[in-house]
């Protein structure tokens, strides 16, 4: 088994995707409550994809909605497809529909990637925004929620793309030829300084990639999720039994 070198890693396995979402809703709510006992704001980087929809719906409903001090949260996104906000493929659009429109968070605390700009400018603008919250060293987000595709990608770090190995820029835009689309993504140097990174992933289609990411030889070009290794923070995987079947 590949030995992780980050400070802490835990794999949380539950029977069904719904159980995973419920446990993670409780876990995130507890983390927000605990963190806000000692800090005034909680910075949370969100993920797109299908996996978080039930989680977001739970967090936008009682009892979680009422336990969270939404005025102290700042929401960001880990990646975005360079399509208008109104496009169903837009990650932020999905998050508004499932969570943000249901909770009393000030709009000024919700930091979407501006896909009206050309992608490189959108990445630059997002990096500038992030520099208002985080310094060049030390902890960044309180929480990064991430997903993993069947091909092992996370954020918009897709297999074989040079952006996987970015060491300086916090945000990058690039043309993803197989999808004929620009992607805008946070990079490992920023995400790996989060206090906690949580991957949420389900289903038999993810089982092989999950085994390779956690137990295979190091090969982030093939399995980009391996590049996410919080330096001083915690890494958690919330998965269902089907995704965990090959571990
Ligand atoms: O392309 C993307 O996919 C991943 C994984 O999505 P899922 O539907 O398999 O959960 C997601 O984390 C990322 O934000 C999205 O842009």
From TrEMBL:
Pathway: Carbohydrate degradation; pentose phosphate pathway; D-ribulose 5-phosphate from D-glucose 6-phosphate (oxidative stage): step 2/3
Extent of the signal sequence: none
One Pfam family linked to the record: Glucosamine_iso
Gene Ontology MF term list: 6-phosphogluconolactonase activity
Reaction catalysed by this enzyme: 6-phospho-D-glucono-1,5-lactone + H2O = 6-phospho-D-gluconate + H(+)
Keywords: Hydrolase
EC number of the protein: 3.1.1.31
One GO term (biological process): pentose-phosphate shunt
NCBIfam families, per the entry: pgl
Family per similarity comment: Belongs to the glucosamine/galactosamine-6-phosphate isomerase family. 6-phosphogluconolactonase subfamily.
Main function: Hydrolysis of 6-phosphogluconolactone to 6-phosphogluconate.
Protein name as it appears in the record: 6-phosphogluconolactonase
Organism listed in the record: Dinghuibacter silviterrae
């Amino acid at each position: 088994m590949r030995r992780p070198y980050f400070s802490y890693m835990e794999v949380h396995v539950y029977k069904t995707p719904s159980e995973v979402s419920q446990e993670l809703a409780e876990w995130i709510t507890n983390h927000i409550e605990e963190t806000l006992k000692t800090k005034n704001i909680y910075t949370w980087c969100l993920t797109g994809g299908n996996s978080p929809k039930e989680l977001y719906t739970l967090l936008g409903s009682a009892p979680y909605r009422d336990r969270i001090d939404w005025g102290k949260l700042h929401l960001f996104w880990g990646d975005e497809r360079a399509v208008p906000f109104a496009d169903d493929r837009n990650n932020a659009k999905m998050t508004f529909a499932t969570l943000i429109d249901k909770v009393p968070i000030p709009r000024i605390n919700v930091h979407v990637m501006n896909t009206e700009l050309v992608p490189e400018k959108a990445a630059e603008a997002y990096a500038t925004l992030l520099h208002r919250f985080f310094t060049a060293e030390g902890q960044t987000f309180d929480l990064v929620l991430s997903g993993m595709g069947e091909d092992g990608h996370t954020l918009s770090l897709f297999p074989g793309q040079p952006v996987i190995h970015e060491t300086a820029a916090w945000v990058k835009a690039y043309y993803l030829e197989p999808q004929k689309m620009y992607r805008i993504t946070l990079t490992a140097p920023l995400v790996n300084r989060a206090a906690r990174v949580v991957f949420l992933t389900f289903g038999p289609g993810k089982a092989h990639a999950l085994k390779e990411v956690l137990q295979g030889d190091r090969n982030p070009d093939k399995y980009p999720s391996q590049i996410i290794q919080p330096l001083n923070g915690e890494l958690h995987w919330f998965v269902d039994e089907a995704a965990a079947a090959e571990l």
